[in-house]
Amino acid sequence: MRTVAVVLAGGVGTRMGSELPKQLIEVGGRPILAHAVAAFDAHPAIDEVLVVMAGAHLRTAAAITAPFRKVSGVVEGGVTRTASTVAALTAMAERPDDTRVLFHDAARPFVDAGVIDRVLNGLTAHEAVAVGLPTSDTVVAVADGLVASMPPRATLFRFQTPQGFRLGTLRKAYELALADPALTATDDCGIVHRYLPDVPIRVVEGSERNLKVTHPLDIVVAEHLAAGAPDTAENM
Ligand SMILES: Nc1ccn([C@@H]2O[C@H](COP(=O)(O)OP(=O)(O)OP(=O)(O)O)[C@@H](O)[C@H]2O)c(=O)n1
Ligand SMILES: C[C@](O)(CO)[C@H](O)COP(=O)(O)O
To answer: Which GO molecular function, any one, fits this protein according to its record (predicted)?
Structure first.
């Protein structure tokens, strides 16, 4: 049974507001995309890394990822993250259903082997695995500028990636999702949760270092992390 990491790099980085998509910005001397790919390329349980990139930057992504021996291809993504996942699923159309697939945001350059291990361990007993951390802020639902509900904080987690799946399960979820004209989702676990509600999604521990570079300030944080800055008091 093979394990494929899909690195989603098809976004344009609207919130970053940079000329280049944020995954092509260098932190710690190499592009954010290269950091993300390197983590999976170096992991002994990952057989293959598939990169999804916006059409305008396919050649750049191919050049950046060429040194990584497990990269099997760079495919063109879609307009949304969901469409980019579909492009990866299409590229994996011939793969058996029991293939393990890990979908990761290229915008999370500091995913580490421990997080990847936890996702893979979760996949031994579950069809879908998410990475999460408890929230330290109080999180509320707001409607029309008013608080609509305040779920107990202890029940709330911030999701990260990679999110792991048996390929067959993710395929099924996406078949149903793509037939839904009201489809909206911010991640692949969201698709499984909505369209295959009977499939339990195991949540394993993420890492504070595994930040998603989204806004300009995140680049400053990413530079510190790339330089080896500690993220826990234990390391200080
Ligand atoms: N059409 C898209 C949109 C997003 N992504 C990827 O999904 C990850 C998470 O998305 P996000 O942080 O939202 O990236 P962008 O879409 O580039 O950012 P923005 O929403 O600010 O435009 C990123 O690695 C991004 O490249 C993708 O592969 N294809
Ligand atoms: C998948 C994700 O990183 C989990 O936190 C997040 O939902 C991606 O959201 P984005 O708006 O595409 O950055």
So the answer is: 2-C-methyl-D-erythritol 4-phosphate cytidylyltransferase activity
- CB of 186 within 6 A of ligand 2: the answer is yes
- Residue having the nearest C-alpha atom to atom 10 of ligand 2: 186
Taking only the tens place, the pLDDT of each residue in 134-193 is 999 999 999 999 999 999 999 999 999 999 999 999 999 999 999 999 998 999 999 999
Domains for the chain: give ranges and CATH numbers: 3-235 (3.90.550.10)
Asked casually if ipTM beats, i.e. exceeds, 0.95, the reply is: yes
Q: What is the mean pLDDT of residues 190-208?
A: 97
Q: Which atom of ligand 1 is nearest to the CA of 106?
A: 24
Of ligand 1's listed atoms, the one at least distance from the Cα of 7 is 24
Q: Find the 20 Cα to ligand 2 centroid distance in Å.
A: 19
For a substitution probing ligand 1, which of 8, 18, 19 has the most ligand atoms within 8 Å of its CB?
A: 8
CA distances from 102 to 84, 99, 106, 135 (A): 14, 10, 12, 23
